[in-house]
Task: inverse folding
C-alpha cells in the first residue's frame, strides 16, 4: 500500500517532513517553495488515490500560481507546521 492510498497516513508523513525541516532550520520561505514544487509535481504526475487527494488536485488545477502557493502553505499547516505569509 502506497503512502498516497490513505489520507491520514499522507498527512502524518507530511507532518513528519515538516517537523524535520523545521528542526534542521529550514526557512519558512524555502519550506513554502518546496511544498509548492511538490504540490505541482503531484498534480501533474500522480493520479490521486483517494477523495481528499482528488479534491486537492482539482483545486490545484483550478488555481492560479498565487493560489497554488496558498494551497501549499495550507497543506503545511494541515500537516502540523506553521508557515504563514
Result:
Amino acid at each position: 500500500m502506497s503512502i498516497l492510498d490513505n489520507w491520514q497516513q499522507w498527512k502524518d508523513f507530511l507532518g513528519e517532513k515538516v517537523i524535520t525541516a523545521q528542526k534542521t532550520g529550514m526557512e519558512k520561505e524555502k519550506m513554502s517553495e518546496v511544498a509548492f514544487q511538490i504540490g505541482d509535481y503531484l498534480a501533474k504526475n500522480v493520479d490521486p488515490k483517494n477523495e481528499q487527494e482528488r479534491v486537492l488536485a482539482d483545486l490545484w488545477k483550478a488555481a492560479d500560481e498565487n493560489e497554488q502557493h496558498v494551497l501549499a502553505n495550507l497543506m503545511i499547516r494541515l500537516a502540523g507546521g506553521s508557515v504563514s505569509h
User: Anything to note?
Assistant: The helical segments are 7-23, 28-45, 51-62, 65-79.
